[in-house]
């Protein structure tokens, strides 16, 4: 090979390598949707640790509800998102292919029905004839409807408005509604002129459990297992810190200040909201009770029960035979505190 041909060959090789590198870089881009819930792992959104750990260029986008996130996933704009089990059940019942790979929290006191001072509501027995609200197709909406049903009431007895959380706060403050089933920051706002009547955990104990989870499109999950594993490891790092070092998450902590800057509100409000979470360790998540076990997965059963209820309410038209295919323990298996 003469010198000219050698140079040409090298040029072709470098060009091919450059194309491969560019292609690989392009592949390592992902859009991740989050909400305003106070989660320890949201600090990693603010400081860039998710991107650093996974090696991906991550475009984090904030949404007001899980229903909005699933709409964005369906359009192809989002590949990974933080959602609640009710919009999750509705989305997959309508044919969307996604998988939950990490449970952010389960039914606790971080979501609750708050009733306004002066509304005349002192107990659950006082709900008949009242006006209540929850975000559309949210876990709160699902639990509010389930609560009403458990009391032997219907939406003819209790007016339920499905409206976004900012509108709930505004309507509540104007006195247009008597209460709202909400999460933070709306939860903190409503409690300023009201009281918690029932928590998400209490409704779960009545037979309507919920969870919030990080989900990925089935295609993205299949093509990017290392990303999901890395993403899960970052979440677990912050959850473990929250569980073992309370001083690092107090109202004066850098973590609380970071959450306030990212999500809104004050550091004190964020620190308070974190205390309301019910979190699961990776080992528990990987068990059959939650993400493990394939068709026997507990999270899959919750999705099916939720879908069945939503069908009764006319919110979805079909209930699938099994929902275990929409959860996976792969990202949390082998991860520990």
Automatic annotation (TrEMBL):
Location(s) in or outside the cell: Periplasm
Chief location category: periplasm
The keyword Cytoplasm is assigned to this record: no
GO cellular component terms listed in the entry, alphabetical order: periplasmic space
Domain Solute-binding protein family 3/N-terminal stretches: 29-252
Keyword field: Signal
Secretion signal span: 1-25
GO biological process: alkanesulfonate transmembrane transport
Record-linked InterPro entries: Peri-bd_TauA (IPR010068), Solute-binding_3/MltF_N (IPR001638), SsuA/THI5 (IPR015168)
Family affiliation: Belongs to the bacterial solute-binding protein SsuA/TauA family.
Protein name, per record: Taurine transport system substrate-binding protein
Species of the source: Rhizobium esperanzae
């Amino acid at each position: 090979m003469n010198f000219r041909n050698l140079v040409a060959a090298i040029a072709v090789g470098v060009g091919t390598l450059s194309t491969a590198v560019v292609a690989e870089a392009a592949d390592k881009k992902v859009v991740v949707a989050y909400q305003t819930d106070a989660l320890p792992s949201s600090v990693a959104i603010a400081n860039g640790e998710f991107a650093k750990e996974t090696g991906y260029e991550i475009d984090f986008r904030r949404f007001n509800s899980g229903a909005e996130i699933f709409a964005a996933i369906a359009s192809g704009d989002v590949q990974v998102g933080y959602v609640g089990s009710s919009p999750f059940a509705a989305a997959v019942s309508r044919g969307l292919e996604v998988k939950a790979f990490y449970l952010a929290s389960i039914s606790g006191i971080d979501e609750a029905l708050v009733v306004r001072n002066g509304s005349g509501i002192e107990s659950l027995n006082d709900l008949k004839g009242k006006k209540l609200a929850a975000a559309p197709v949210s876990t709160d909406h699902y639990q509010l409807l389930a609560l009403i049903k458990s009391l032997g009431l219907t939406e003819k007895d209790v007016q339920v408005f499905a409206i976004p959380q900012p509108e709930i706060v505004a309507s509540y403050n104007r006195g247009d509604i008597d209460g709202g089933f909400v999460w933070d920051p709306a939860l903190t706002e409503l409690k300023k002129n009201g009281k918690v009547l029932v928590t998400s955990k209490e409704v779960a104990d009545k037979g309507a459990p919920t969870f919030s989870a990080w989900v990925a499109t089935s295609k993205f999950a299949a093509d990017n297992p290392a990303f999901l594993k890395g993403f899960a490891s970052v979440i677990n790092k912050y959850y473990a810190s929250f569980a073992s070092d309370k001083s690092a998450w107090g109202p004066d902590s850098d973590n609380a200040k970071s959450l306030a800057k990212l999500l809104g509100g004050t550091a004190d409000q964020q620190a308070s909201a974190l205390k309301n979470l019910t979190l699961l360790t990776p080992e528990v998540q990987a068990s059959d009770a939650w993400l493990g076990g394939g068709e026997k997965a507990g999270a899959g059963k919750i999705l099916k029960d939720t879908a069945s209820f939503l069908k009764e309410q006319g919110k979805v038209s079909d209930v699938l035979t099994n929902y275990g295919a929409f959860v996976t323990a792969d990202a949390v298996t082998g991860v520990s505190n």
